[in-house]
UniProtKB/TrEMBL annotation:
N-terminal signal peptide: none
Protein name: Adhesin
GO CC annotation terms, alphabetical: cell outer membrane
InterPro entries assigned to the protein according to its UniProt record, in alphabetical order: C-type_lectin-like/link_sf (IPR016186), Intimin-Invasin_domain (IPR051715), Invasin/intimin_cell_adhesion (IPR008964)
Top-rank lineage group of the source organism: Bacteria
Transmembrane segments: none
The organism of origin for this protein: Escherichia coli
Length: 172
């Protein structure tokens, strides 16, 4: 998603070296990497990205390849009922995620939006996410849907005529 970021840590470099000992570059225009090794996604791109860390004092470079499997968008600050969330996603060529695609575990890990990226309220306003409940495509019953908090990862049930935010994804 736009505004998503991660930080290259000191354990990504040669022993005794820190990010300050390297110059960073990105192979794609849709990703920025700053002087501290913070990698930020600017917009949707292809699914592979290469970050190169070149030692300022000379020597071999480190190359980090990352694969982005899906791209996420959201409804910004617009609350909506379930049917509007479905329409928001499909009309933009995206899919409303299942509850387990939003969060399959309260612990950090790879594979769902919350477990991989954490509290969405921590990202810039450019990202558009709120620390609140988001619709999933997972039905609880005929009149209710599961929603997931992108602040805590908790799952609840809302009536389809209730209000929550929408986030959608597409595979890259």
């Amino acid at each position: 998603f736009t505004g998503a970021y991660y930080q290259l840590n000191n354990d990504n470099f040669a022993p005794g070296k820190t990010a300050a000992d390297y110059e960073f570059s990105s192979s794609a225009s849709w990703v920025d990497v700053d002087a501290t090794g913070k990698v930020t996604f600017k917009n949707v791109g292809s699914n592979w990205e290469r970050i190169t860390a070149t030692p300022k004092s000379g020597g071999p470079s480190y190359v980090y390849e990352i694969r982005v499997k899906s791209w996420w968008v959201n409804s910004g600050d617009a609350f909506m009922i379930y049917s509007l969330a479905e329409n928001f996603c499909s009309s933009n060529g995206y899919t409303l995620p299942r509850a387990d695609h939003l969060n399959h575990s309260r612990s950090r890990g790879i594979g769902s939006l919350y477990s991989e990226w954490g509290d969405m309220g921590h990202y810039t306003t450019e990202a558009g996410f709120q620390s609140n409940m988001y619709w999933s495509s997972s039905p609880a019953n005929s009149s209710e849907q599961y929603v997931v908090s992108l602040a805590t990862g908790d799952q609840s049930v809302f009536e389809k005529l209730g209000f929550a935010y929408a986030t959608c994804y597409k595979n890259l």
